[in-house]
Amino acid sequence: MRVKNGKFFPLPTLSRSDANVPFTSCCLIAMSAPPPTSIRVLRDAGVVEVAWGDKPAARLPFHFVRCLCPCAGCIDEISGERTLNPADVPQDVTPVKLAFSGNYALKIAWSDGHDTGLYTWDLLQDLAQQCSKSN
Q1: pLDDT, tens digit, for every residue of 58-88?
Q2: DSSP notation for 21-49
Q3: Higher per-residue pLDDT: 9 or 132
Q4: Using an 8 Å Cβ cutoff, are 37 and 57 in contact?
Q5: Given phi > 0 = left and psi -120 to 50 = alpha, else beta, which region is 38?
Q6: What is the dihedral of CA 67, 70, 72, 73, to 10 degrees?
Q7: Is the separation of the CB atoms in 33 and 50 below 8 Å?
Q8: H/E element holding 117?
Q9: CA nearest 92: which of 75, 74, 110?
Q10: Nearest one of 59, 70, 58 to 29, comparing CA atoms
Q11: What gap in Å lies between CA 30 and CA 46, rounded to an integer?
């Protein structure tokens, strides 16, 4: 999935003319954002705090992050349209477990039982920018 203007779009599919392109050069996605230098869950504040180097840390509200989960259960894989209704996510949702997925994403298990989203560093930076614009 790619994010553009807050919408998720499926990655392009290969056509038959792409069959001679080696797998490693056609199917890997370049991540432009570096890994965060710090990720903290601040339960009392209700935020995930993410920092990159010397930039101010971004404070992402739990509900905001959960509602923007990029998984196939929350985003239609064909249209890129969000299928998750934010009203269906409890306002008091909290992360119960965080884990790294390789060196490119954060996997968050949520108190509402949802645990399939991978929040790439690019997505986290995008969410941080959205939060900074709304504050």
Answers
A1: 999 999 999 999 999 999 999 999 999 999 9
A2: S-HHHHS-----SPPPSEEEEETTTTEEE
A3: 132
A4: no
A5: beta
A6: -10
A7: no
A8: none
A9: 110
A10: 70
A11: 31
CA 6 – CA 134 distance, rounded (Å): 13
pLDDT tens sequence across 115-134:
999 999 999 999 999 988 87
Where residue 91 falls among pLDDT bands split at 50, 70, 90?
very high
The Cα–Cα gap between 65 and 123 comes to: 10
Spatial distance between the Cα atoms of 95 and 65, rounded to a whole number of angstroms:
10
- Tokens representing 4 are 């553009």
Q: What element of type H or E holds 10?
A: none
Strand (E) positions, 45-135? 47-51, 58-61, 95-101, 105-110, 118-120
Residues in the chain: 135
Output the pLDDT for position 12. Answer: 45
Joined tokens for residue 8: 């998720």
CA distance linking residue 42 with residue 48, whole number of Å: 6
Question: Would you say 69 and 84 are in contact if contact means Cβ atoms under 8 Å apart?
Answer: yes
